[in-house]
Amino acid sequence: MPRLIIDEREIEVPEGTKVIDAAEMLGIVIPRFCYHEALGSVGACRMCAVKFIQGPFKGVQMSCMIEAQDGMVVSTTDQEAVEFRKRVIELLMKNHPLDCPVCDEGGQCLLQDETISGGHAMRRFPGPKRTYRDQYLGPFIKHEMNRCIHCYRCSRFYQEFAGYRDLGPMQIGDRLYFGRFSDGCLESPFSGNLVDICPTGVYTDKTARFKLRRWDLQRAPGLCNQCSLGCNTVANAHYRGVMRMEARFNRDVNGYFLCDAGRFGFSYANGDPGLWRRPLFPKIAGEVAGAADALSAARKALDDIAAKNGPGAVAVVGSQRNSLETQSMMNLVCETRGWLGPVFFFDPAMRLKTLSAVHELDGEIAVSMKQIENADFILVVGADPLNEAPMSAMAIRQAARKKAPVVTIDPRPVSLPCDSQHFAVLPKDIESYLGALILKAMGKDAASLGSESENFRAYLGSQLENFNPPESLDQCARLLAASSKPVIICGTDVTMETTPAFAADCVRLLNLCEKQAGLFNLLPGAGSFGAGLLSRTEVPTFADLVEYIENGRVRGLVFAESDPFHCYPDRARLESALSKLDFFLALDYFPSETARRASVFYPASTIFETGATFLNQEGRAQFASPVHCGGEPIRPGEHPPRVYSGLVPGGDHLPAWKALASIAGMEETCPDIAPEKFVPPSIPGFEALGYPVDGQRPALAKSGFKTQWGLNTFDKSQAPLTFELLMVEWIFGTSEFSAWSDSLAPAVLPPLMSISAKDAVRLGLADKDKVSVELAGGELEIVVSVSDRTAESVLIVPRHNGLEWQKSHDFRVFVSSEKIRKI
Amino acid sequence: MEKSDIINVSKNRGEKGNYVKPILKGLQFTMGNFFKKPVTIQYPDQKTVRSQRWRGLHKLNVDEKGELKCVACGLCAAVCPSQAITILAREDEGGTRHPEKFEVNELRCIFCGFCQDACPKSAISLTKIYEYVNYNREDFVFDISILKTTGEKWNS
Amino acid sequence: MSESKTVTLNMGPHHPATHGVLRVVLELDGETIVNATPVIGYLHRGIEKICESRTYQQILPLTDRLDYSAASANNLGYCVAVEKLLGIEVPKRAQYLRVIMAEFARIMGHHLWLGTHALDIGAMTVIFYAFRDREMIMAMNEEIAGYRLTPSFIRIGGVAYEATDDFIAKVRKFVAWFPKALEGYHQLLTDNKIWTTRTMNIGKISAEEAINHGLTGPSLRGSGVAYDVRKAFPYSSYGDFDFKIPIGENGDVYDRYLVRMEEFKQSIAIIAQAIENLPSGPVMTDNPLVASPSQPEVQTDISALIRRFMVNAKGTPVPSGELYSAVEGAKGELGFYLVGDGSEQPYRLKIRSSCFYLASALPRLLVGHMVADAIAIIGSLDVVLGEIDR
After folding, report:
1. Is the pLDDT of residue A447 over 70?
2. Does the predicted interface ipTM exceed a cut of 0.90?
3. Cβ C247–B14 below 8 Å, yes or no?
4. pLDDT tens for residues A661-698?
5. C-alpha distances in angstroms, B56 versus B69, B113, B130, B154, B155?
């Protein structure tokens, strides 16, 4: 632990700390452009010069390039260093254009700040400025190269950190250019971080172009609720609309960065009465109604149904995007009123997978994304990180940069921004591959392990009967054996019901062999972990609920932030079931089909308008603060309000839990109902922490083998010459957020069905052929993409918003080869 | 404080005096001014000349091509102490920045002139117009079309 | 039958002789005041609170609206406070121009006092001559700053604009002419028996009591206390000028009148010295954190443009710390207690309003006098409600 003195203050820092970071620990921020904690130092900008007075270095040196050592005495305010920095700024400003008034970065620009703080006040160089041609970089990023100060941050982030090759430095010296070979969309789904990372305005946010200035914005620490990772964001609002998202630093979760889906997928939250976007007003039978009327109409209708047919005739349906508050309230309402529910899951298999993923994860094996970055072996099973939870792919990339081997076992052609060994296997075979790999890597006689894993090992043995692993698996097993901190990343989307629990027990088995193995699950949505914790086994899934509706047992429904038209695979059946209902209510912020058809619709507030807690897939509770009050957007010129209005902005919008409490009459039974009261008791471990919880992991299960999930067996048979239709997620175009955020629309690619090269030959198909797949609900027309990384005997189809995949009529579908026709 | 810095004004205050003499003195002063040229003018028929630096109603300046100089950078709105300026920017086909909306609420304005001091493009300036009337308060929220031609209405 | 009863009389807030919106609740026994309660707050705009959400630059035009009859003096007081916290030096020429503006503000304030005070007591004539001369100062304000009553000419770090030749000529003309005008005021009032009868021995307050009530400015000096911030704690080069502090002896309305009449003379003497010795040089500091660069620089130099951007949009970061800084306003000691927290906006700005203390001395001064004297006393204290209520 070296001790050094910076500006006459002593500090002890960990070994390997750069002087620039040591100073920051003291609260001294040394100016910098190229240095970034996540990207490391290159010493390109020469801005962080300080004077070393004593110790191994002497004179003016770059503080980002020198590690703190014992006996160093550093001055950041030494005249020589200050003068040096001032001259550096002057040179950097030599070519910077007179752009501040038209540049979106103005007001939050590092270059502006450092120019002022460096004391450079007047231009002395009379010569002309260097100019460049700007490129088109896709729908998210605007390129204005003249503003570049050659700090290399963008290329270091884009190529080294994120692992994409299509943007980088070209030419040399003064002509250095950062861009692509030719105009075109950036390939990386992390391109939005260029906006955050660029110290000046070379890369600016196209979705917010010319819309705002930093000083006009309302800002609050928020969360991204688009996938289960719970990345931290800063939401920026202006004129009652969300204008921009920035990444918020959280060492354990997302670090400094954010994926493009999370960064640009916010426009669903912006209402505009002129457009068919976010629904802003309550509706009764499709007609705009007052807020109080809508709530009381819904309450009366549901009370009538409960009185006539018993409370069990009313069911409450949630989804994977409910906040913990909404989930807890749904639970409370169903308990107090005796209503059926809450139903969080549409697919029974998904419920089982989520429940096992949640209940099998314990404090010993759960790892955060930061721990993934430090892992020395990464095994991805049944998961497609880049599409299901993009930031986890970034974490995997960081581990791979530190030479950690990455192995993926999945039917999909999983691609990661790093080298990986891919095993394209059917979902039913994932467990066999995983089990074989673990057993080989243990290198120990299984019998010598403790008795606690006995049941599991028996199950493992049954999985491996008649299984001949490929040779390449041996090599992976050797690497795994050599590792000390392996991490298994397990998905829930395409895996078998048993797989998440199986993966958890595999991790435990590895831990018995003196490894520090970790498990990282990927869940289907931001609210999945909470849904898994709060879901009760006696409550049906939505698939069962449809039957109940059809046979008249359920007559009234409440959809809380839930859209079955998006999640349920049989649209025709759903339509007829909903029409049989006496009454159904939708509480939502999306203009969904359910919201359109609802007997009563009530606009729920988004994560940006009311605080919400989410448990991410590792059980970390995080709180998103509200950023603005929402409500009807302010049109330009209406602010500050100049005409008296009796309506308080945002007054019509309640968080779903509040509307639900009002509809269920909870305000009468517990008058001062507040999340502080009902959220903590609903989840074990929460009460001690109070509300809101931010950052802790209170809800993890006790450690130990829990074989009750793993020992259940499911039918894994598949008839020969049939294809399993696997519905998968894409980063853009499959989620509800993507469906209703027009800011993401330009990034959505047309749907493609992925099949393996061998199957393509068998079916006589070539890449980019258009095929028709005959499904129970009709023909599905889609373009084929042939990949030799796809498993055989599967058809991989995205749940694309532009595709009528709801023709599949079931969650698990097999298609025989004659039903696939080329057209 | 030194004694030399102080001057006692009560030294020669007299309690005496009479009513007649001072009144005559006052009348003398009045008569002395009575035949002088009046310093007042007949407003509004006559008006004094405003200084070059006068801070009156706002005006948006145009360039040689007749287009607004304003690029909607928002500095004037940021510096305005009374938040009288509302700006929204838009991007034209060429990617340049223009004001979509530029509104000045002349009733909020305190005419400090900070907006014209802040403008990097000399796009907003204050005219010499100081007398302005309207029938509605709303009419004092000036938009681009009015600001471009400020003065035509009240100067005529 | 005969029972002594007091009558409550409400004076103000819309009484022409209360100079704004001062309300005094008088308790009368016959015509004698037995109790007086000033009620303030009718002009409260929350300026101190607004300041907490404005940058240091944006606060400046708000200070004009404190004692609006002598706006430049308020500007000066605020700027001096901020500059002390920032630790910047103001160029000499700017300091002299500030002195000129502040002394003009004092004269303007005294003009308003003289005219209305005399009018309240019944001397109609004076206000016409006082306002004639006040108009000349307003014209000079307009010439140099562009605005007449609230010029906002003094800025943090210097003054807004360079003085024009026309301005300097006008000042010289005024300096030469004003002593004659002052002679006229004296001629109309000073020895007038009606005036002396209405003002002598009315509203007397001893030096000790005046200090205890926190009176400052001419009202304190009328009681014989020689305290003037310009001499006691010189700021903005006041030490360079030769001027005297007038004091009275009796602390009555008439002495306060005499003190102010002498202050006219001293102020014009200061202006005369300042305009003759006006140094050359810049009128704004060159500190890049404060000074907004000139238009030609901004349109050619990116560094200047960035400075323009930062100074105007973000403001000037002022180091954390607190200080109290006072100047001699037209009515007395005008203090700014400023707490900076390192940001561009003050954490707290407390304004020590001299008028507030003057108004708080009213119960003491009014008791025992007739209602008609109350008018004379309020007038002699010269309170401005913009500063009391803030």
Report:
1. no
2. no
3. no
4. 888 887 777 666 777 777 777 777 777 777 777 777 77
5. 20, 9, 5, 12, 12
CATH topology of domain A283-344+539-636+649-696: Rossmann fold (3.40.50)
Q: What is the mean pLDDT of chain C?
A: 87
Residue A232's pLDDT is what?
A: 92
Partners of residue C192 in chain B, C-beta under 8 Å? 17, 22-23, 26
Facing residue for C312 by CB, picked from B8, B25, B79: B79
**Residue A203 banded pLDDT, cuts 50, 70, 90:** very high
B58-155: CATH, from 3.60.15.10, 3.30.710.10, 3.30.70.3270, 1.10.10.10: 3.30.70.3270
| Conformation bin of residue A622: beta by default, left when phi > 0, alpha when psi is -120 to 50 | beta
Most distant CA atoms of chain B, gap in Å: 86
Q: Which residue from C289, C304, C310 is facing A122, i.e. has the nearest CB? A: C304
Q: What is the average pLDDT value for chain B, to the nearest integer? A: 83
What is the average per-residue pLDDT within A796-809?
88
Contact yes or no for A106 and C299 at CB 8 A: no
Which CATH number fits the domain A722-822, given the four candidates 2.40.40.20, 3.90.550.10, 1.10.1200.10, 1.20.1540.10?
Answer: 2.40.40.20
Residue B151 to chain A, least CA–CA distance (Å): 22
Quick one: average pLDDT of C139-143?
A: 90
Amino acid at B10: S
User: Which of B69, B70, B71, B73 to mutate to test binding with chain A, by most A CBs within 10 Å of its CB?
Assistant: B73
Q: How far apart are the first and last CA of chain C?
A: 48
User: What is the C-alpha to C-alpha distance for residues B155 and B150, in angstroms, rounded to an integer?
Assistant: 9
Assess whether pLDDT exceeds 60 at residue A708: no
Chains that touch B (3 or more CB pairs under 8 A): A, C
Model pTM score: 0.85
Report the gap between the CA of C311 and the closest CA in chain A (Å): 9
Per-residue pLDDT reduced to its tens digit, A3-60: 888 888 888 889 888 899 999 888 888 888 889 888 888 888 888 899 998 888 888 9
**Cβ contact A253:A229 at 8 Å:** yes
> How far C86 CA lies from chain A's nearest CA (Å)?
15
Integer Cα distance of A606 and C113 in angstroms: 60
- Give the residues across from A585 on adjacent strands: A558, A600
Put simply, the answer to whether A210 touches B89 (Cβ < 8 Å) is yes
Nearest-Cα residue of chain C relative to residue A213:
C313
Q: A497: helix, coil or strand?
A: coil
Topology of the domain comprising A3-92: Ubiquitin-like (UB roll) (3.10.20)
Q: Cα(first)–Cα(last) distance of chain A, in Å?
A: 69
Q: What are the φ/ψ torsions at residue A572 (nearest 5 degrees)?
A: -65, -45
In three state form, how does the secondary structure of A139-181 look? CCEEECHHHCCCCCHHHHHHHHHCCCCCCEEECCHHHCEEECC
| B-C contacts at Cβ under 8 angstroms | 140
With an 8 Å Cβ cutoff, are A642 and B138 in contact? yes
Pick from A633, A659, A563: nearest CA to A278: A633
Query: Which chain C residue's Cα is nearest to B81?
Result: C58
Where do the structural domains in chain A lie, given as residue ranges?
Answer: 3-92, 126-265, 283-344+539-636+649-696, 352-528, 722-822
On chain C, the residues whose CB falls within 8 A of the CB of B85 are: none
Q: What is the pLDDT of residue A391?
A: 92
The answer on pLDDT for A489 being more than 90 is yes
How distant is the Cα of B116 from the closest Cα of chain A, in angstroms?
A: 14
Answer whether C306 sits within 8 Å of A111, measured CB to CB. yes
**Considering only CB atoms, which chain A residues are within 8 Å of C288?**
116, 119, 121
Give the minimum alpha-carbon distance from A372 to chain C in angstroms, rounded to a whole number. Answer: 39
- Looking at domain A352-528, which CATH architecture does it have? 3-Layer(aba) Sandwich (3.40)
